[in-house]
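Per your request, structure below.
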């Protein structure tokens, strides 16, 4: 059964259909939580709150976007409220490298165990990148996570954040410039 059929059945009270929707989307929402908060507990809270809100709001879901995009919007709104409330800005670069399905892409990882220098440099770079992402203003961090890390299209990000396409593109560009500047400063200092 496809997503549209499951949504229609869930709207009529079919809990099995809603469970199927949860199964199909829960890894993406959980991983989004990991990328926003950097820990499993807050990611699990995000997951739970997202599906509670989705279940409660399902009758008003009009289908103007996909169910997944609608869930991302609910999850992102919850994450932003939590981040604003707690001013909690930690993100793990190890989790950024994780794929949506929870596995690492072997092509992204090198076997550097025989060369401690490269291992040290890799860990150092992860810390610098993580710190640079953490230092982004929240509106740019959110855009960066949704577009560049989660791989959502500009149109999906615009819908999730209720922004225009030009504003979304501008924020994507600015977040990348900010990160480039932060990383350039680091490499200039290191003489690389």
């Amino acid at each position: 059964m496809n997503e549209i059929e499951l949504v229609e059945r869930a709207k009529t009270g079919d809990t099995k259909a809603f469970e199927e929707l949860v199964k199909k989307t829960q890894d993406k929402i959980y991983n989004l939580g990991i990328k926003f908060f950097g820990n499993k507990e807050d990611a699990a809270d995000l997951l739970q709150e997202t599906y509670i809100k989705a279940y409660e709001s399902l009758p008003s879901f009009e289908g103007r976007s996909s169910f997944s995009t609608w869930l991302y919007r609910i999850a992102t709104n919850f994450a932003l409220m939590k981040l604003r409330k707690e001013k909690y800005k930690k993100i793990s670069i190890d989790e950024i490298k994780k794929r949506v399905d929870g596995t690492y892409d072997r092509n992204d990882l090198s076997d550097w165990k025989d060369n401690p220098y490269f291992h040290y440099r890799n860990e150092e770079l992860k810390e610098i990148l993580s710190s640079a992402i953490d230092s982004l203003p929240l509106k740019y961090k959110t855009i960066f996570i949704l577009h560049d890390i989660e791989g959502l299209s500009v149109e999906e990000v615009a819908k999730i954040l209720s922004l225009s396409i030009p504003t979304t593109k501008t924020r994507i560009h600015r977040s990348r410039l900010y990160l480039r500047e932060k990383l350039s400063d680091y490499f200039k200092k290191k003489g690389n």
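The domain at 3-190 is CATH 1.10.1740.10 (Rna Polymerase Sigma Factor; Chain: A).

Regards,
D.
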